[in-house]
Design brief:
The protein has 280 residues and is mostly helical. Helix content is 84%, strand content 0%. It has ten helices and no strands.
Length: 280
């Protein structure tokens, strides 16, 4: 689990898609290690969903602080307003899907159909069968329903994910202390929220340049010297992004070998179970 977490998080850093790339990586390694596909979907979905929801809470807190303190002006205020509106729209749409199962099924089916059409057009030789995509969106819908039926069981992972985000923010905070600049923790949350959201929405790998520029701009508008903000943000980038990526590289080869070995060992068992079901 430690290795899969490192690799999945590193993939999120490289391909910023709101956590979907890490979701796919976890799914891949879980299934190669013999976990049932439906269980792999539920586990990966729980982690991705709770992580993004917790991040959204920090984002909303940061923006509430910005607007209450009246420290932003001009283009910085416009940019944060746009990001806040997008975050609220995304949160409202996600809540609507959670509360209305029929709408959720239709939305997932539409996403599956759109994905299949795009892959047929862009990657015709690597497009999976339409039934595989339908099965995936079916398992995804069942995973969401499972999360909603086990609200109390989600408290423990939600607690650990909250600690994870708090420690991430403290990394950015101590980056400023390292360059000998004291900053209010609320202002750190503001810059962190804006930078992380923009890097998630960016198509540039890892949000390279987007996160640093947006964070430095926000901190500069909050009164931090621009040069100090740039150095602190770069220090945060190296500590939080580059070091885990280097660690995950040491795990990758062994994980692929282990997954291949287990897949070969489990294949006869799966064939035997399938033959037994056909005989019945």
């Amino acid at each position: 689990m430690l290795k899969i977490t490192f690799v999945a998080n590193s993939m999120n850093y490289l391909v910023a898609t709101g956590g979907l790339s890490g979701f796919a990586v976890r799914m891949y390694f879980f299934t190669r290690l013999g976990m049932a596909s439906q269980t792999a979907v539920i586990v990966s979905l729980a982690q991705t969903f709770l992580t993004n929801c917790t991040l959204l809470a920090f984002v909303l807190f940061g923006f509430a602080y910005v607007f209450s303190s009246h420290t932003l002006q001009g283009s910085a205020l416009v940019a944060t307003t746009v990001v806040l509106v997008l975050a609220l729209v995304a949160a409202a749409f996600a809540a609507l899907l959670l509360l209305h199962p029929r709408l959720r099924r239709r939305t997932l089916f539409l996403i599956a159909q759109t994905t299949y059409c795009l892959m047929r057009r862009l990657l015709p030789h690597r497009t999976p069968a339409r039934t595989h995509i339908w099965r995936y969106q079916f398992n995804l819908n069942r995973g969401i329903a499972f999360l909603l039926s086990r609200k109390r069981a989600m408290l423990a992972p939600l607690f650990y994910i909250s600690i994870d985000w708090v420690l991430t923010i403290l990394i950015l905070y101590t980056s400023f202390l390292t360059v000998r600049y004291w900053i209010d923790i609320a202002e750190v949350i503001v810059g962190f929220a804006v930078g992380i959201v923009l890097s998630f929405a960016s198509l540039i790998p890892g949000g390279l340049g987007v996160m640093e520029g947006s964070m430095a701009a926000v901190f500069s508008s909050l009164g931090v010297p621009f040069e100090t903000a740039v150095v602190a943000v770069l220090l945060f980038r190296v500590t939080y992004y580059l070091l885990p990526l280097l660690i995950s590289l040491f795990f990758l080869h062994g994980m692929f070998v282990q997954g291949t070995t287990l897949s070969k060992e489990l294949a006869p068992k799966h064939k035997g179970k399938a033959a037994h079901r056909r005989a019945q």
